TrEMBL record, chain A:
Lineage start: Eukaryota, Metazoa, Ecdysozoa, Arthropoda, Chelicerata
Protein name per UniProt: Replication factor C subunit 3-like
Keyword ATP-binding attached: yes
Keywords, ordered alphabetically: ATP-binding, DNA replication, Nucleotide-binding
Annotated organism of origin: Limulus polyphemus (Atlantic horseshoe crab)
Residue ranges constituting the AAA+ ATPase domain according to the UniProt record: 34-190
Highest taxon of the lineage: Eukaryota
InterPro entries in UniProt: AAA+_ATPase (IPR003593), DNA_pol3_clamp-load_cplx_C (IPR008921), DNA_Rep/Repair_Clamp_Loader (IPR050238), P-loop_NTPase (IPR027417), RFC_lid (IPR047854)
Transcription listed as a keyword: no
SUPFAM superfamilies: P-loop containing nucleoside triphosphate hydrolases, post-AAA+ oligomerization domain-like
Gene3D superfamilies from the UniProt entry: 1.10.8.60, 1.20.272.10, P-loop containing nucleotide triphosphate hydrolases
Gene name per UniProt: LOC106472915
TrEMBL record, chain B:
Organism field: Limulus polyphemus
InterPro entries: Checkpoint_prot_Rad17_Rad24, P-loop_NTPase, RAD24-like_helical
Protein's recorded name: Cell cycle checkpoint protein RAD17-like
Localisation per UniProt entry: Nucleus
The organism's taxonomic lineage, starting at the top: Eukaryota, Metazoa, Ecdysozoa, Arthropoda, Chelicerata
Superkingdom classification of source: Eukaryota
Length: 355, 597
């Protein structure tokens, strides 16, 4: 048995549940015979990957679903051996170059070179190019992105790139201008509700519309999350009740508690405790950016309207620094300390006003 | 040739019953010390005479002679070391010797002592003097230059082949176990034997466990006291912690004596003693500046005197003999001034523990008025003069700016009480980190970043009245490195287990937590990962302790923070065909085939 998310993933461009107009455009693009490099971006759980897979199927037929996992080995200029996992079919290869950290440039260059240098055998029945899917392009180092720019042009005749990322803001303009940008926006709550209902129908379950709506609301318009939530609801309690408990990931609960601690007391001692909790989150593999985002969301919810703007600005400032720097804890902590100080000052002032 | 051969057979037969078989000859080494001493004595006599007679040009064999050997202390009174320490070692020596005499009845484990202290504080000198006073046969281990050096080379090439080279480790074991059994042939009977090890074979630094085993073996079989001497330093890996962990000290009943840098008064005495022997006169100011420059290091002090007295090719003694002109005196004065800058103070490093204390307790000189008055509106920024310079403190620790800031970061919170000051300190860490992000200027800016943090902490902590040095707080080691390592290892593990998902980010934040709830038929490894990383209650990965204490003389070894390569797959190069159809869609048209290229 597999997850519903994978089980009920549409495999055909015409079967997609939302953004149908865009799907039609993509279809036209494929039937035009050729297409440029693509940059697919959008929030997580919006269906980028689904769209890419559908596109591949449209291009090459069912052959793209015969997948194999390979370990590729590369050597860096400093003679360091690196290994990366790729998922490939006969027509495409998918890789997440940011897996190897700072050595991503080598992977991007070498992998593209090897793929692009092998020609397709039967050009009349197949396309004359292969497709390389690069995931998490926004996490690539600047070095790798610049290397990519050159490689993209060089192997244009034999290979097409599909770049996939959450935010196009971290992709250098040189790459953006060489690709056709495809933005996949997050589905609306109503769209999620319909998808949930179709999924439940396929599983021959009946879901009360109220519950579907609650799940959709709680999923932050992330379809993957919504389906996962729905499935875990099913595990916890069936038949569904409209007001049943929707499980949240443990780390989110933990992060919320952490935010509460910050609001409760503003002191160095508390800060030390919070630091410990951030380390705990990191050890549970929650990336720093996610922690930052989650904290901001909770803190803003907890503070007064006039502070919201200031806190958000601070968060943006320190998030930027987190990206620049190499020790995330300094910046997260600086943000928390700043918040504590602002919040404390605000509390003291409002107390003074009362008396 | 004949004699050598005879010697060889004779030697071999005598050690046949020994349980350590080796062809190398150790007892030569045993006598080294005695020979050295005899040589030194003659040299000493000759050297002093010739030097006094002819300056340095006269004595041909004393040109390279170091005064350290020449004026080595001969009696207990000559030692500049604290009297109590010397007594402590002496009583231990006498006690252990008497215990060793009737070892069959009383002794449980062989007496071992460990002397630690900074370089040049008289550890070796005290042992040598005591050995002389108590009339002990002292055997010192010297690392062999070459593995085959202990072999007899009788000129026949085939004989050479027969002799197998022994490792340094074997030689050391051989030495330490044999030296305490057999007395030297070259020395008349003495009241006892003493083994001294100052030079540790390099192998042991890499594999301290081997050394521990040797010690345990010695403790069981040894029949004479053994003394191990370790110089501690602020940089490099600490031998003391590696080779003599606390548990071993307790287990083998090792007596540890830690020496301190020598006090200025004892140093002044040493200077006058040496000057007396060498017939050199130094003025009081010269004397003081030399003592100050040596930083409690006798060896350095004697070197300084020797160097100071004979600058360049012209000897000062001869000059004084020739003339006492005005020009000469002027030159002398210049020499004194320059001596502290050119000969230089000894670079003494600071232990991380002390460095942290200097920054965080930030003592200020309350007597002195700050230079330059600040205008009224900046009065609250005014601070007393600092006792220690932040940059100097940092440069004397042997850690990188990164580590230094991390240590400060991990420990400063217990020195602050107000949230407002925390905020100010905290932002400085963020600033410091931003300064040194640019790769090209990292080397230079690293120091600045440490300076930014240290200065800002010193400045702001003063504002917090309770912050400065009222009570003692323990220091802890930063967790960041271990957290980072766990994070990376975890990522690699997750990637290994869930190869079919290309997105790591969503995998960690969304799929794994929910898989924990849904739990489809995942394999065992996946279930384990889910349990470990998805749950906060069950998967307590981080140790619950508040952190590891930083002990006073500990040296922090830095991690390789830049290795981002995931841990190697336990079974690499397996063209594994993961059951995508099972995990994706169970339909007929999803065919998985073996991949062959």
């Amino acid at each position: 048995m597999s997850l519903w998310v994978d089980k009920h993933r549409p495999t055909n461009l015409s079967k997609l549940d939302f953004h149908k107009k865009q799907a039609a455009h993509l279809k036209k693009l494929v039937h035009g015979g050729d297409f440029p490099h693509l940059l697919v971006y959008g929030p997580s759980g919006a269906g980028k990957k689904t769209r890419i897979l559908c596109l591949l199927r449209e291009l090459y037929g069912a052959g793209t679903e015969k997948l194999r996992i390979e370990h590729q080995h590369f050597q860096t200029p400093s003679k360091r051996k690196i290994e990366i996992v790729t998922i490939a079919s006969n027509y495409h290869i998918e890789v997440n170059p940011s897996d190897v950290g700072i050595y991503d440039r080598v992977v991007v260059q070498e992998l593209l070179k090897t793929v692009a240098q092998t020609q397709q055998l039967e050009t009349n029945s197949q396309r004359e190019f292969k497709v390389v899917i690069l995931n998490e392009v926004d996490k690539l180092t600047k070095d790798a992105q610049h290397a990519l720019r050159r490689t993209m042009e060089k192997y244009m005749s034999t290979c097409r790139l599909i770049l996939c990322c959450n935010s196009s803001s971290k992709v250098i303009p040189a790459i953006k201008s060489r690709c056709l940008g495809v933005r996949v926006p997050a589905p609306t709550v109503e769209q999620i509700v319909t998808v949930l209902q179709t999924v439940c129908k396929k599983e021959s379950l009946s879901i009360p519309p109220e519950l579907a709506e609650r799940i959709a609301e709680k999923s932050n318009r992330n379809l993957r999350r919504a389906i996962l939530m729905c499935e875990s609801c099913r595990v916890q309690q069936y038949p569904f009740v409209p007001d049943q408990d929707i499980p949240e990931p443990d780390w989110e609960v933990f992060l919320k508690e952490t935010a509460k601690l910050i609001v409760q007391e503003q002191s160095p001692r508390k800060l030390f405790e919070v630091r410990g909790r951030i380390y705990e989150l990191l050890i549970h593999l929650i990336p720093c950016e996610v922690i930052f985002k989650g904290l901001l969301k909770e803190l803003v919810n907890n503070c007064d309207g006039q502070l919201k703007g200031e806190v958000t600005q601070l968060a943006a400032y320190y998030e930027h620094r987190l990206q620049l720097g190499n020790k995330a804890i300094y910046h997260i902590e600086a943000f928390i300390a700043k918040f504590m100080s602002i919040y404390k000052k605000f509390l003291e002032e409002s107390m003074a006003d009362v008396f | 040739m004949e004699v050598q051969k005879q010697l060889k057979t004779w030697l071999k037969s005598s050690f046949d019953n020994d349980f350590v078989t080796s062809s190398s000859r150790k007892d030569c080494r045993k006598s080294e010390y005695q020979k050295d001493e005899a040589l030194a004595k003659t040299k000493r006599k000759k050297g002093i005479q010739s030097q006094l007679l002819f300056g340095e040009r006269g004595g041909n064999n004393c040109v390279g002679e170091s005064w350290i050997e020449l004026f080595a202390p001969q009696a207990k009174e000559d030692l500049a070391v604290n009297k109590k320490k010397v007594e402590q070692i002496e009583t231990w020596l006498i006690d252990s010797l008497s215990r060793c005499k009737n070892f069959l009845t009383t002794i449980k484990c062989a007496p071992i002592a460990l002397l630690t202290g900074p370089a040049g504080c008289g550890k070796t000198a005290s042992i040598k003097v005591l050995a002389k006073v108590l009339d002990l046969d002292m055997k010192e281990w010297v690392n062999p230059v070459d593995n085959s050096s202990g072999l007899f080379d009788d000129g026949f090439s085939n004989n050479r082949l027969l002799v197998s080279a022994t490792t340094q480790k074997e030689q050391f074991v051989d030495f330490i176990l044999r030296a305490n059994k057999y007395s030297s042939l070259f020395v008349k009977s003495t009241s006892g034997r003493l083994i001294v090890v100052e030079d540790f074979p390099n192998v042991f630094l890499r594999e301290p466990e081997v050394f521990h085993n040797v010690l345990q073996l010695y403790s069981k079989t040894g029949r004479c006291p053994a003394v191990f001497i370790v110089s501690e330093s602020g940089s490099g890996s600490s031998i003391e912690h590696h080779l003599f962990p606390k548990s071993l000290l307790a287990e083998l009943d090792i007596m540890q004596v830690s020496f301190n840098p020598i006090a200025p008064t004892s140093l002044t005495k040493a200077v006058s003693r040496i000057c007396g022997i060498a017939k050199v006169t130094l003025s009081k100011s010269e004397n003081e500046s030399l003592v100050a420059a040596s930083n409690g290091d006798v060896r350095h002090l004697i070197n300084l005197i020797q160097f100071f007295v004979k600058p360049g090719s012209t000897s000062r003694i001869s000059k004084e003999c020739k003339s006492n002109s005005f020009a000469g005196q002027k030159r002398k004065k210049n020499m004194v001034e320059s001596s502290s800058s050119i000969l230089g103070e000894r670079d003494h490093s600071l232990f991380l523990f002390h460095a942290l204390g200097k920054i965080l307790y930030c003592k200020r000189d309350s007597g002195k008025e700050p230079e330059g008055q600040l205008p009224i509106h900046l009065k609250d920024k005014e601070r007393m003069v600092l006792l220690s310079n932040a940059e100097a403190v940092f440069s004397r620790t042997a850690v990188t700016a990164d580590t230094f800031t991390l240590f400060l970061h991990h420990n400063y919170l217990s020195f602050v009480n107000s949230a407002y000051i925390t905020e100010k300190c905290c932002t400085s860490f963020s600033d410091a980190n931003i300064i040194c992000t640019e790769w090209s200027g990292k080397e230079v800016l690293d120091e600045y970043s440490a300076s930014v943090v240290a200065r800002s902490l010193m400045f702001h902590l003063e504002e917090d009245k309770l912050g400065g040095g009222q009570f003692w707080r323990p220091f802890y080691k930063p967790e960041w490195f271990s957290v980072l390592k766990l994070y990376r290892d975890g990522q690699a593990a997750v990637r290994n287990c869930f190869k079919e998902w290309a997105y790591t980010l969503d995998l960690q934040t969304q799929i794994i937590p929910y898989l924990g709830v849904v739990q489809p038929s995942a394999d065992n490894a996946q279930l384990e990962i889910i349990k470990k990383y998805g749950r906060f209650s069950s998967g307590a990965v981080r140790p619950k302790t508040p952190g590891f204490h930083l002990s006073e003389k500990e040296i922090f070894e830095e991690f390789d923070t830049h290795s981002t390569v995931p841990v190697a797959d336990p079974n690499p190069r397996v063209e594994d065909t993961v059951n995508m159809c099972e995990s994706v869609v169970p339909q007929e048209d999803y065919i998985i085939e073996e991949y062959d290229d």
